[in-house]
TrEMBL record:
The keyword RNA-binding appears for this protein: no
Its biological purpose: Has a role in nuclear-cytoplasmic transport of proteins and mRNAs.
Entry protein name: Nuclear transport factor 2
UniProtKB keywords: Cytoplasm, Nucleus, Protein transport, Transport
Entry's Gene Ontology BP terms: mRNA transport; protein import into nucleus
Species of provenance: Oncorhynchus mykiss
GO terms under cellular component: cytoplasm; nucleus
NTF2 domain location: 10-121
InterPro entries named among the record's database cross-references: NTF2, NTF2-like_dom_sf, NTF2_dom, Nuclear_transport_factor_2_euk
Recorded coiled-coil stretches: none
């Protein structure tokens, strides 16, 4: 099997970097956003680097660990990369929960940044 396409390499590297930062020091996530970036977190919308970092760094838990189950990456017609991530997360002493993340990555000033992101917990009403 040959080498992965460049968009898969970039997407996978970004995902690995993102979750390493998220799990260790969420305040450092500002470097991956720009002022035009948007986040939808469980239906709440945030726009701009400062608003996104504030939301992520003030989430109500001390510890978090993500386990990635699958990730898919696609190139877009405008030279961006769309990434879909599913997995499980554990915060503090809470139960393990499933999640989905969608990232839109754009090359901005020779660095890949996240311009759009969606997050949802995989909760089911039984």
């Amino acid at each position: 099997m040959g080498e992965k396409p460049i968009w898969e390499q970039i997407g996978s590297s970004f995902v690995q970097h993102y979750y390493q930062l998220f799990d260790t020091d969420r305040t450092q996530l500002g470097a991956i956003y720009i002022d035009a970036s948007c986040l939808t977190w469980e239906g709440q919308q945030f726009q701009g680097k400062a608003a996104i970092v504030e939301k992520l760094s003030t989430l109500p838990f001390l510890k978090i660990a993500h386990s990635i189950t699958a990730q898919d990456h696609q190139p877009t017609p405008d030279s961006c990369i769309m990434s879909m991530v599913v997995g499980q997360l554990k915060t503090d002493d809470d139960q393990v929960l499933g999640f989905q993340y969608m990232f839109l990555l754009k090359n901005y000033r020779n660095a890949w940044v996240c311009t759009n992101k969606f997050f949802r917990l995989a909760l089911h009403n039984l």
